Amino acid sequence: MMEGEAAKALTNQREMNEGKEKWCERMKEAGFAGEVFGEDAIDGGRALLRKYDNNWEMKVEEENSTTVGLWWKGQPVSFCSLWKLDKQSSSSSTLTAR
After folding, report:
1. 72 CB contacts (<8 Å, ≥6 apart)?
2. CA–CA gap between residue 65 and residue 37 (Å, rounded)
3. Where is this region: SAW (predicted)?
4. What pLDDT, in 10s, does the model give residues 21-32?
5. 5 vs 48: CA distance, rounded Å
6. Please, which residues have CB within 8 angstroms of residue 3's CB and are 6 or more apart in sequence?
7. 26: closest CA among 12, 46, 42?
8. DSSP states of the chain as a string?
9. How far does the chain reach from its first CA to its final CA, in angstroms?
């Protein structure tokens, strides 16, 4: 249920094709904190990409980054990010569980 509430809060009257920086900013405003992907998750994702198509690659753009880029033939296509509710944030009260 929390995923649905977060999606409503984040997509309500907003552009779906916005950049990574704007997306991360909105997640923080909605009361979430970014999490760093574990090494096993990164390695597993890269292994899956290699298994199916060598033209895809994953890039962790900086150390301790909460986002991982998905690239096709050297061009950025999408990204993935990992978030959890920030218990320190007062804005997390805007999301309610049902």
Report:
1. 55, 56
2. 8
3. 3-84
4. 888 899 999 999
5. 30
6. none
7. 12
8. -HHHHHHHHHHTT--SS--HHHHHHHHHHTTEEE-PPPHHHHHHHHHHHHHH-TTEEEE--STT-SEEEEEETTEEEEEEE-EEE-TT-GGGGGS---
9. 7
